[in-house]
């Protein structure tokens, strides 16, 4: 991953360098091109203006020599064009302050030359050719024309040098751009080749890792299967042991309960006899025997009876859990709405006694699960809602069910009962543990049994509760338990 990231970074830097250099070279090329265009425009303006002046001068000489007006046609044609050429030359040289003084001298010379041409032509037309020739012979116009030619030659030479330099700069820039493009392409190709190598290496590593994981998973699944079988056997042994222990404990408990009943009968007779005898206040032994027969022994037997009944209830609870654990779960199609309605109907009369209601909102269709286990789970939850309702308000129970991601289903049983303290949210699911007031009968195995059954179906149960406001039990189950139960069976 680091190699790939480094190669990508190099490629990015190379691409940024190529783009930046290309933009700079393109900008330089544009500058050189603009300079060449400006030089060509200046050269063209100078050449055109020089040619027009030369045409006008040649036309004037022909007319002066021959007196034939036909020689004036080039002169007349050049007059408007000279003005345009001068304006064009001014526009081209306007960005260059150093050309202002020579340009002003050029205009002065051109004006002088044109004035001379006009005067000589007018004199010839008036029949004064000698005076026209005399003006030409002063050589003033020729000097002005020579200064103009010098200006044009220098401007054309400078433009030619500038054009040559601009073309050379453009050629150098193009060559440099070509080199940069080639180097950049080689760098990008190198980066691409490196990235392909890194990707292939990484892909090969992934393939090797996947192969190793598949081999490990194959062995892991076999080990998990073996451990699951071992755990299943151990669980069966524990359940068998619990069944045997509780069964063996029950035998002496039955004897104790039987002898306790006989003792109660005997104590009743002794109590009746002692109560029929007159008390002898001078005989302390008689008083103690009377007290023992009428109060102490009946009270002790009451405690013994209560303890044996509680122990009998605990043993029955353990036997119930043991038998339930040994029962073979049978996944089958279950219409959840029908099962919830049937379970609610079973406790409807108890809820109606306190003007309570049971509402349902089932948005789940058919489940594949163990029907008896789900009936016992919902029945136990509703029994708890009835048992631990708040006496000061009518009981209200809401049963909801909905689909959740992972092909699972959530069932919520919400009541407005007495609630469960925050410290007891997990404690109530422990065996023989209860929360809050213990005035309601029970051994503390209901929720522990519910959690055991829910987990045996491949789910889990949690709760949210506020003391004095109510409790919501949340049961999360797979929509189809066959896969989970199949693994357990294996």
TrEMBL record:
Query: GO molecular function, one example?
Result: protein kinase activator activity
GO biological process terms, alphabetically, are: osmosensory signaling via phosphorelay pathway
Class of enzymatic activity (EC top level): transferase
Q: List the InterPro entries.
A: BphY/WalK/GraS-like, CHASE3, HATPase_C_sf, HATPase_dom, His_kinase_dom, HisK_dim/P_dom, HisK_dim/P_sf, Sig_transdc_His_kin-like_C
* Pfam families xrefs: CHASE3, HATPase_c
Q: What is its EC number?
A: 2.7.13.3
Bilayer-spanning residue ranges: 176-200
Q: Which PROSITE patterns match?
A: HIS_KIN (PS50109)
Reaction(s) this enzyme catalyzes, per UniProt: ATP + protein L-histidine = ADP + protein N-phospho-L-histidine
Q: Name the SMART domains on file.
A: HATPase_c, HisKA
Q: What is this protein called?
A: histidine kinase
Q: Which organism is it from?
A: Devosia subaequoris
